[in-house]
Amino acid sequence: MKDDRLVFEYYKNRKIERGPQKINSCTKSILSILIGSLDAPRKRDITIEDLLTMSAGFDWPEFGEWNFFAPMVFSPNIVKFVFDRELRHDPGEKMNYNSGCSQVLTAILQKATGMKAVDFANLHLFQPLGIMNARWYEDTLKPLKLFEEFVIRFAYEKQREGV
């Protein structure tokens, strides 16, 4: 971005150019901003900040024995699955990549707002930034999808705001 204009873009192929793309871990940044806009109460020793920084302390071997595939995908209640995990560390003590934290944050966002995550994001974040065609599936195990230009625009706007 330069002077509010996209100055370069590259696409691997036409299919990618024409549709929104999975932004996987960037979803956590979007959730962080949305959760930060709430006045959500803290529960027990695990805080919203712990979930946002993936330092909740859960035994979560996502990149170890689970080989990048958390078994929460087979659970009928993902939030319960996450909180049923044993604590390996005190909350806030150590970061451990945990995609379950995003699932819990999504549930918190939806419970606190009474809205689907995508509806809240559209109303309070995406539409004000001119971001259209965001896809955030009902099944929160699928990542948020945005066009690359919007990811860049989002980062650019947040940098300008000092966020």
TrEMBL record:
What UniProt keywords apply to this chain's record, in alphabetical order?
Hydrolase
Task: Name a GO molecular-function annotation.
Answer: hydrolase activity
Q: Which domain of life is it from?
A: Bacteria
Positions of the Beta-lactamase-related domain: 38-139
Is the keyword Signal in the record? no
- One Pfam match, given by its short name, reads Beta-lactamase
The transmembrane segments are none
State the InterPro entries in the record: Beta-lactam-related (IPR001466), Beta-lactam/transpept-like (IPR012338), Diverse_Enzym_Activities (IPR050789)
Name of this protein: Serine hydrolase
Say which species the protein is native to. Answer: Saccharibacillus alkalitolerans
